[in-house]
């Protein structure tokens, strides 16, 4: 048993070392990724199953590096948040999203809104509001078609400045969704003070909703909260019809997940947009 403990420890420390090494590689490669044009945007449909309409598209970042290969955002985003690089990356994502959106509008394609993920360090940057204003002006993207997805980690530091920034962006027409709702901090008091337009029920409550009573209870509570506060709730990570049916029975109308469409690059999502015309 003792030996086993030591092996476990050795495995653990080797794993840590490899992870640390990997992070150094990712960090230096990440610094070049924008200029080397290694990033691409993928777009995932958000649908209203009541009438089959397209509500919007969530923008998801993809990174293909020559030797590291395809690196998952759940690996490189947290890393970029630690180093602060997320601010440049996030700016690129916002700008490219709005550029793409404006091109689609010019082509007569309808996509509802574009939902762009914004990290806490990015949102808290001194010049974030000015940055959004400038991107909207430069790209001529209609602000009311932009939705920013914030996680509860952004909202937990609900300083005067943060709330002021949200109201300023809201005054332009920009909307806010709370991403991964229910997984962050238990305080809901920010819902009173902040201009929130939508809650996104986290995938972790959806995965086992067909078989797990507590997931069903939590999802039901989030949907009831949304209804009481007049906030639409979108359920994410729907893979099976059965999951959608349970959520529909709880009053959910808005969905996102592989069942309705995977994240797709420009050319493929355009096929979907044309089919919706
Ligand atoms: P998220 O914002 O919660 O995005 C949803 C994730 O679930 C995406 O993973 C999406 O591809 C995946 N997904 C959607 N439907 C399904 C489904 O039916 N089944 C399964 N198994 N997965 C599904 P992805 O693209 O790997 O992104 C992971 C996370 O990385 C995102 O989670 C978000 O937190 C972050 N991220 C991605 N792009 C950006 C970005 O441009 N900026 C920032 N700050 N974060 C980003
Ligand atoms: Ca998101
Ligand atoms: Ca999410
Ligand atoms: Ca998530």
Automatic annotation (TrEMBL):
<feature type="domain" description="EAL">
    <location>
        <begin position="23"/>
        <end position="277"/>
    </location>
</feature>
<protein>
    <submittedName>
        <fullName>Diguanylate cyclase/phosphodiesterase with PAS/PAC sensor(S)</fullName>
    </submittedName>
</protein>
């Amino acid at each position: 048993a003792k030996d086993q403990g030591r092996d476990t420890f050795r495995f653990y420390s080797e794993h840590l070392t490899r992870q640390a090494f990997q992070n150094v590689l990712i960090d230096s490669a990440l610094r070049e990724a924008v200029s080397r044009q290694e990033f691409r945007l993928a777009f995932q449909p958000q649908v209203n199953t009541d009438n089959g309409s397209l509500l919007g598209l969530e923008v998801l970042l993809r990174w293909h590096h020559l030797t590291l290969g395809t690196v998952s955002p759940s690996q490189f985003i947290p890393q970029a948040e630690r180093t602060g690089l997320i601010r440049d990356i996030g700016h690129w994502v916002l700008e490219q999203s709005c550029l793409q959106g404006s091109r689609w509008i010019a082509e007569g394609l309808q996509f509802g809104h574009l939902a762009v993920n914004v990290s806490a360090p990015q949102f808290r940057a001194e010049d974030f509001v000015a940055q959004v204003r400038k991107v909207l002006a430069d790209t001529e993207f209609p602000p009311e078609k932009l939705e920013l997805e914030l996680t509860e980690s952004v909202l937990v530091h609900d300083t005067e400045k943060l709330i002021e920034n949200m109201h300023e962006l809201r005054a332009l027409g920009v909307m806010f969704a709370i991403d991964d709702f229910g997984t962050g901090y238990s305080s809901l008091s920010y819902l009173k003070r902040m201009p929130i337009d939508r809650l996104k029920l986290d995938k972790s409550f959806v995965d086992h909703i067909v078989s797990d009573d507590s997931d069903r209870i939590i999802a039901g509570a989030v949907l009831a909260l949304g209804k009481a506060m007049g906030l639409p709730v979108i359920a994410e990570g729907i893979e099976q019809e059965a999951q959608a049916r349970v959520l529909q029975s709880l009053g959910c109308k808005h969905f996102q997940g592989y069942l309705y469409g995977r994240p797709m690059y420009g050319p493929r999502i355009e096929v979907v947009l044309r089919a919706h015309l």
